[in-house]
Amino acid sequence: MKELKDLVRANIFALKPYSCARSEFKGQASVFLDANENPMNGPYNRYPDPLQLSLKEKIAKIKGVRPSQIMLGNGSDEPIDLIIRIFCEPKRDNIVAIDPTYGMYEVCADVNDVEYRKVQLNADFDLDSAKLLASVDANTKVIFLCSPNNPTGNLLNRNEMRKVLDSFDGIVVIDEAYVDFSSQPTWLAELDKFPRLIVLHTFSKAWGLASVRCGMAFASEDIIGYFNKVKYPYNINLLTQNFVSEQLDNEAKKKEWVSMILAERKRMIDELGKTPIVKAVYPTDANFVLVKVDDADTIYNTLMQRGVIVRNRNKITLCKGCLRITIGTKAENDTLLADLRAM
Ligand SMILES: *Cc1c(COP(=O)(O)O)cnc(C)c1O
């Protein structure tokens, strides 16, 4: 097995990170004349904690990990970009990912000028580890898996994922943005077993905080150290740290929302299945459902004219004729069903 430092880009390994006033000082003090802040207008006059320790302590309790295994970002999109910047040498290294999946992995690879290799899922949208691993070469640094997957909604086969973790000598990212809606446990419990595993969670879906932009990466302390070296020092502002911390006290509310959405998901799967223009409803462990229809573009446009927006996935690999429908409130879901049945 390669050492972590052999996977990290040489310039990042050698990087001397920016040292901010707030991270140099550790201890108790009452006079802060170190950071050129305005002494008035507290508490937002002060630079925030660059490592967000008090928020991470709360998250750690809920997620069952150590605070030192957490990196917080501006959505999950920030850690996705940082993973590529930490491990992939532009124009030389490559990334292997399932296809179809979340579009940001490829966009971030392209921005960083890193080759992005797509490996098509099976016809039932599942992972074939042997096929995926056949695309790996000596320059593959990162594999992206997403489970439950977007836009298909299904979980990837856990044994196949485990084979990838066991065989690949590099970083494996498992994006679990939809884990709260899933019947399967998170991979977080396996972090200590797989030191090259990075698990992504977000506050954007089940927690109902998409506009707040706060995502989580969980990994070994060694990997978190590289995230901390490369990220902007004050990437999570104090408003966000305080607000997310308050919201974490509402875990019961989040669980209520998830139960409501799961009940609606079940009802929508049944109702969509009884809707004539729907040709297939695919299994889902997320808060959305992928459906195949007769003429996706026309149905998408007609819905849009009526003010109902769904996601047209007609041009995506394996998703020809498919629309991705988020589970909304009962009233929103009923509007969609009525519009589909009137076509
Ligand atoms: C929605 C989503 C995210 C969340 O992204 P944020 O930047 O945290 O809002 C991450 N991964 C997948 C697969 C998603 O569908």
Task: Name the assembly state.
Answer: single chain
The ligands found in this model are: pyridoxal-5'-phosphate
Largest sheet: 7 strands, mixed
Shape: globular
The parts where pLDDT drops under 50 for at least 5 residues are none
- Mean pLDDT equals 97
Write the H/E string, N to C.
Answer: HHHHEHEHEHEHEEEHHHEEHEEH
Strand content: 15-25%
Adjacency order of strands in the biggest sheet: 1-7-6-5-4-2-3
Question: Pairing-aware structural class of the strands and helices?
Answer: alpha/beta
N-to-C CA distance: 57 Å
Rg over alpha carbons? 22 Å
Percent helix range: 25-40%
Strand tally is 11
Query: What is the number of helices?
Result: 13
Walk me through this protein's architecture.
By secondary structure, the chain is of the alpha/beta class. 36% of the residues lie in helices and 16% in strands. The chain has a seven-stranded mixed beta sheet with strand order 1-7-6-5-4-2-3, with helices on both faces. It has a four-stranded antiparallel beta sheet with strand order 8-9-11-10, with helices on one face. Helix 6 links the parallel strand 2 and strand 3 (115-120). Helix 4 packs parallel to helix 10 (238-247). The radius of gyration is 22 Å and the shape is globular. Pyridoxal-5'-phosphate (PLP) binds at residues 75-77, 102, 146, 150, 175, 177, 202, 204-205, 210, 215.
In a few lines, what is going on in this structure?
With about 350 residues, the protein is α/β, with parallel strands linked by helices. The protein has helices at about 5, 10-15, 20-25, 55-65, 75-85, 105-110, 130-135, 160-165, 220-230, 240-245, 250-275, 295-305, 330-340, and strands at about 70-75, 95-100, 115-120, 140-145, 170-175, 195-200, 215-220, 280, 290-295, 310, 320-325. Pyridoxal-5'-phosphate binds near residues 102 and 204.
